[in-house]
């Protein structure tokens, strides 16, 4: 008679496994909460809130020129600063894609990734269709005092920066709440 698979392992390992899972879960949630609290208190990027965003032209990841002068005049714009090696950015990008598809507002991605092939594969894999600009020298990141990703910026139709949000959203509910300022 064949022995059941679970009987191969000593029973004392079950509580140890549960304990390890609980420790990992609570330490991860604690770090996420600390990150949320600290990132929203960053004074440097908040200095630009209320200021006019100067028009800029930048190339998208395919090399096509993109001008904010033409694209956002009179429209509300969400700008999503991200990186392909940022796990939270990858999670959030699907929410930005849903917002882009809904056509309620304009969404623009900005990255300073060095490996554009990796980024293109990601965009293809997750079917990201909103424009993603390549800030190769990091000029826009510097101008807006963005030190890490993800960062979300709301710009109104008059090109005034209304909100900079550095909170990480791990689920769709949190993300939707953040859209209502």
Describe this structure as you would to a colleague:
There is one protein chain. The chain is of the alpha/beta class. The chain folds into two domains: 10-39; 42-178, Glutaredoxin, CATH 3.40.30.10. The protein has helices at residues 13-40, 43-46, 68-71, 87-102, 116-125, 139-143, 172-178; strands spanning 57-59, 65-67, 77-82, 106-111, 132-134, 151-155, 161-165. The strands form two sheets. It has a five-stranded mixed β-sheet, with helices on one face. Mean pLDDT is 76; it is low at 29-43.
Q: Which sheet architecture does the biggest sheet show? A: 5 strands, mixed
Model regions low in confidence, pLDDT < 50 over at least 5 residues: 29-43
Provide the gyration radius in Å: 21 Å
The total beta strand count reads 7
- Determine the CATH superfamily of the largest domain: Glutaredoxin
Oligomer: single chain
Strand content: 15-25%
> pLDDT average, as an integer?
76
Please trace the helix and strand order, writing H or E for each element: HHEEHEHEHEHEEH
Strand order of the largest sheet: 5-4-3-6-7
Helix content: 40-55%
CATH topology of the largest domain: Glutaredoxin
- What's the end-to-end separation, in Å? 64 Å
CATH class of the largest domain: Alpha Beta
Shape: globular
| Helix/strand structural class | alpha/beta
Give the secondary structure arrangement, pairings included.
Blueprint: H1 13-40, H2 43-46, E1 57-59, E2 65-67, H3 68-71, E3 77-82, H4 87-102, E4 106-111, H5 116-125, E5 132-134, H6 139-143, E6 151-155, E7 161-165, H7 172-178
Parallel strand pairs: 3-4, 4-5
Antiparallel strand pairs: 1-2, 3-6, 6-7
């Amino acid at each position: 008679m064949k022995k059941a698979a679970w009987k191969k392992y000593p029973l004392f390992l079950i509580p140890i496994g549960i304990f390890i899972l609980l420790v990992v879960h609570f330490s991860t949630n604690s770090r996420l909460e600390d990150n949320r609290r600290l990132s929203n208190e960053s004074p440097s990027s908040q200095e630009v809130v209320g200021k006019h965003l100067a028009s800029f032209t930048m190339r998208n990841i395919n090399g096509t020129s993109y001008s904010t002068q033409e694209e956002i005049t009179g429209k509300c714009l969400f700008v999503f600063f991200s990186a392909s090696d940022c796990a939270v950015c990858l999670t959030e990008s699907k929410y930005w894609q849903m917002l882009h598809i809904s056509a309620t507002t304009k969404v623009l991605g900005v990255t300073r990734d060095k490996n554009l092939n990796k980024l293109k594969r990601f965009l293809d894999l997750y079917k990201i269709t909103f424009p993603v600009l390549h800030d190769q020298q990091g000029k826009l990141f510097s101008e807006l005092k963005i030190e890490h990703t993800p960062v979300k910026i709301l710009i109104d139709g008059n090109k005034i920066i209304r909100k900079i949000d550095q909170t990480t959203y791990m689920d769709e509910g949190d993300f939707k709440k953040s859209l209502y300022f």
